[in-house]
Protein 1
Amino acid sequence: MTFSVNTNEGALKALQNLNKTNMKLQTVQTQINTGLKVASTKDNAATWAIAQILRADVSGLNAARGSIDRALSTLDVAVSAGEAVSDLLIEMKEKAVAAKDPGIDSASRTALNNDFVQLRDQIQAIVRTAEFNGINAVGGPSPAAITAITDSTGSSDNQITVAAQDMSLGGTIVTVASDATMTSAAEASSTLNLIEASLDNVNAALSRLGAGAKRLELQKAFTAKLSDALEVGIGNLVDADMAKASATLQAVQVKQQLGLQALSIANQAPGSIISLFQG
């Protein structure tokens, strides 16, 4: 062992060990503060990059869930409108059957026709206002299909589209004309046939809308599960084990205290050289 007042080897080694302990302490404190064992790319570049990619996928899936929710809400409005149209057609059928009776007088047929016209116009009013988020799937100037994205990239290959079901008067579903009347028994009979065909068409259209809504609900449930699975995967990659971090913190704090003590002892060593020069 060399006695030197210029270089204290023991103190240098003690300082090196203390610095390592302090770095470990800083790491553990960061884990406790953030709850993450990989909080930045400096902690583990590869793991951090993988986690960032997965976080981006989760964000994309959140957007997809929002798109599905909007599509479901639009479908809910469309289905409600379609059900209302079906109910109105049933009421219109009752009026048509009554007006078809050759035994009723002119005043009664006129009253039935007035009721029929109000019900007819109500159908048009309903389908024109059945809009959500700017989309009307059952009427209006330009009925539109309902589309939802289903993956994290918004790819057009992974979308669900529910076709529009135009229930406007005089269309292919509701075949009753917008100016239909029942001023005679013959006219009532003809209108009755159109009403019955329209009822069948509307019910079939509602079935298609309902099937689309069911598919969207299934996709929503799957997307939620997929998002949760990715969140768990990210947690497995970057989350800190807090129980382990707590135990490590206590151990490192003890090592820090011992390191400070060792450095203090090493710093006192050069003082022993003075005894060599005392008589």
Protein 2
Amino acid sequence: MKPGHRRFRIVGGGKPAAAGRRFVFGRPGSVAQRSNRSEGRGSLFGGWVFLLLLSLGAYVASSLPPPEKAVTGELLGAAVASDGDSLRLAGRRVRIEGIDAPEIDQRCRRGTTSWDCGAEARRRLAELVEGRTTRCRLHGRDRYGRELGLCEAGGRDIGREMVLSGLAVSYGLYRDEEEQARNRRAGQWAGEFVRPQEWRRTQGKGEESPHRAGDWLELMLQWLENQIWIVGA
């Protein structure tokens, strides 16, 4: 037969299949029935897989060294603590980079006792800078116009000391120090507390972003670790 002159015969008398009906090997509709039964199991399994992948991604990201930020300036002199994670130095406000301390009016708990962890954090920072020359390497500004800086006083990294004392938490840096403080149940870790970022949100205060690129993974990992820690406590 020449091309272009082939004839095709429609099987089944030329009647179109009923709309929406699916034919499969076995009984009609068996795939739909099976899919309804497995849909719930598949969604649950997919949720666990997604959570696992997020956890792995957060862990890998947090294990990598944080990217270096360009130094925008340096301040040197006598500093005064404003709260647990910021100070005044050379007439300028400096937010200590990589940590987050409880707010001045924030309270924490040890058993049935409530204590002023915000004020305690400020006292600890004041002790670290009192009578010492403070040096801050600046890395730009935060959303409130404060300088962001890594600071040291008397040869000690202020952010690191605050996190080790349990009166500040990691906020992009010092994850190992936070783990040490938590294991020793130092400061806030001796009882119950709300992370400053979450406390600010519940109090209707301004949001403050973490200080390093990709820190949403850092915070995700912290949340997962906190859930495990709470369950195991």
